[in-house]
Write a structure and sequence with these properties.
59% helix; mainly alpha; Non-ribosomal Peptide Synthetase Peptidyl Carrier Protein, Chain A; globular; 5 helices
Length: 87
């Protein structure tokens, strides 16, 4: 997945969040500092679904490392984590 840049990662993450919340990607608007979990009301079940979808799309086990929890603190933190782990 070395061809992933920040814009592609953000677009894919927005698509994943939209899918989890049964929204369209155009319904999701996020800045790096945004707490996307609170902003879109992700439940614990939504977080599990998010984790599974991230693992499938980006090809690494999300939710298995301690740093993965920090990746949920903001949209930017999640983007950076995916960029680091999918490289």
């Amino acid at each position: 997945m070395n061809d992933l840049n920040v814009e592609k990662i953000e677009a894919q993450l927005i698509s994943i969040i939209a899918s989890v919340k049964n929204l369209t990607s155009t319904d999701i608007s996020l800045q790096p500092e945004d707490d996307f979990i609170s902003q879109y009301g992700l439940s614990s079940m939504d977080a599990v679904s998010l984790s599974v979808k991230i693992s499938q799309v980006f090809g690494f086990g999300f939710g298995q490392e301690v740093e993965d929890i920090d990746g949920l603190s903001s949209f930017g933190a999640l983007t950076q984590l995916v960029q680091k782990r999918a490289a």
